[in-house]
Write the structure tokens for this entry.
Amino acid sequence: MGASKDTWRFRRQFLPLDDMQIPPPGEVHLWFLDLTRLATPLGAPELGVVLRPRQSRSTRRFYLRLLLGAYLGLPGKDVKISRINKGKPVLDARRHPQTLHFSSAASTNSCLIGVTSEGPLGVDLELAERTTLKPRALARRYFSVAEQRVLDGIAEADIHRAFIHSWACKEAVVKAAGLGIANQLCRFTVNVDPGQPPALLDLEGDDAAAWKLAVLRPDPACLAAVALRQPVLRIQGFKLLPPEI
């Protein structure tokens, strides 16, 4: 079974980070970062910060390495990341023999980072109230036939929420499996009804029952999806915040 959006609470975790314990088997540490808040000068939160795309990317990379370094007992600058399987980022095995898997996603100036000791892991982050032009047409182009049929029966008032829910789940599965997004979304089926527990129903070339999915709200504006190929999925959620003054 999957899990509902209200199952987990995100606890506040202030910088600086002490050494973090690597999650035990079956557990995912899920970190939500408001990059605008983290970039706000200390003592002057009223100023706010607007991140440009390049700044946002570099800020995400900085905090990804910072978090991974906290688990590995290293400064963030010493964390080395390489890419495999159509660009999937992983820790460089030549530098980091420890078992640690991660996945990250971004939406505007927010970031989601998942960390686990067992993989493969994938996460996605979407704006919860995002609307999509012609969602049924996009589903016919990218989704499985089974998903298209269910979406065709969903009321117009609920179609955007169902589409974003489905897209987030499918992106998380693609990231976990290390597949390129092109021509892959139609090769597996997720439960597209946001009122039902999230689940992977069918996966070409794999046992869908071996996977666990979760959908949750780390922030009122954001929808997060987590995919893990393990029989158990437990989530510890954290919001990373600037140092307390």
